[in-house]
Amino acid sequence: MPKHTxxxxxxxxxxxxCQLTMVIMxxxxxxxxxxxxxxxxxxxxxxxxxxxxxxxxxxxxxxxxRAEYEGGREELKLSxxxxxxxxxxxxxxxxxxxxxxxxxLGMSDKTAVDLTGNIESVLKECGFEDNxxxxxxNQQREALAALGVSPDTTPTANT
Length: 159
Hints:
The chain has 8 helices and 2 strands. The chain has helices spanning about 10-20, 35-40, 45-55, 60-65, 65-90, 95-105, 120-125, 130-145; strands at about 25, 30.
């Protein structure tokens, strides 16, 4: 004897009933198939595109077929990932491999400059071989040497 579940229908049965019947919004009937909404979303169509296809507003699609639309978009993402990985691994596509390495492996093209080393070598690499600071420092040493003062001594406070 079949089990009687009462008057309540399962959520899947209700969803399928809505998919196969006409959607009535504000007194206007729209004959919209939920599976076709899912298929169009998996092709990359927006809510607006699907609404135009069915000659209704996008809010009808957004409100009544959100689950089908989001499922279709997830199918699209999965398909794109699958094809991108196939291009990278099987077809040896360098651009696809670089994209995957950057986005999935966290790699980047950035090169860091080590500025913790000798500042003089960094300045020479940048083209500042005759550093004006060094020239001024040499002039000060020569002037102090002409006065007979050793440049390595520091002046002391008067006591």
